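Run log, item B.
One chain of 247 residues. Sequence copied directly from the ordering sheet:
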Amino acid sequence: MKAILSDIHGNLEALEAVLADIASQGITEIYCLGDIVGYGPNPCECVDRVMAKCKLSLLGNHDQGALFDPMGFNASAERAIFWTRKQLESGRGPQADRRWEFLGELPRVHREQNLMFVHGSARNPLNEYVFPEDIYNQRKMEKIFGMIERHCFQGHTHIPGVFTENLNFLTPEEIDFNYVLRQEKVMVNVGSVGQPRNSDPRSSYVTIDGDTVRFRRVEYDFRITQKKIYDIPDLDNFLGDRLADGR
């Protein structure tokens, strides 16, 4: 049994709540699909937690933006990336060095048996979004499914759910938060720990037990994270406001 989470975005309160929920189920194998940093007020602490707790972590586009020149971000996200980089650069000592080494060595794709793990999509593991409305873009979906052997787990959009090869998108609520993996190809978006955008402020992640994927929701005190964001001039207040609504 393993837990798969994504898009922490420097939200320490959400990450701690999710890790506690995972531990309460006796799960010790944790995969992170990227975007540990960006947007949130605790990038260094979140990198430290992921290094300590996750067996696997992938590179997300915000992680890459903090490492190199950010490309394709809006003004607010870019300002947050530069502030995040400053926090990482201001660290001193072995732990600060380990953070840079860890982020710099993150892979973009991981495969095991018939499972694939990416941040964005099988076609563009770092940057491509696969939104629920893409089920109406047959050409795009066919190309992405053509690069998947069987089952692909991804994040990036912050919207949890299951994409089927016959072009349906199933929300966790529609499938009672459980989905059984069978022979058909599917893409499973695990949602976001630290910046949910599915109109639910709770953190989202999934567990896999055999062939069964379970979508989890975890409450945390987003008001603490909001206050931290409001107190940092380089982080747009909107990044805190949206935590209350999951948008």
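Observations after the first pass:
- The two ends are 30 Å apart (CA to CA).
- The helical segments are 12-24, 43-53, 61-67, 75-90, 94-104, 138-145, 222-230, 237-241.
Flagged for discussion on Thursday.
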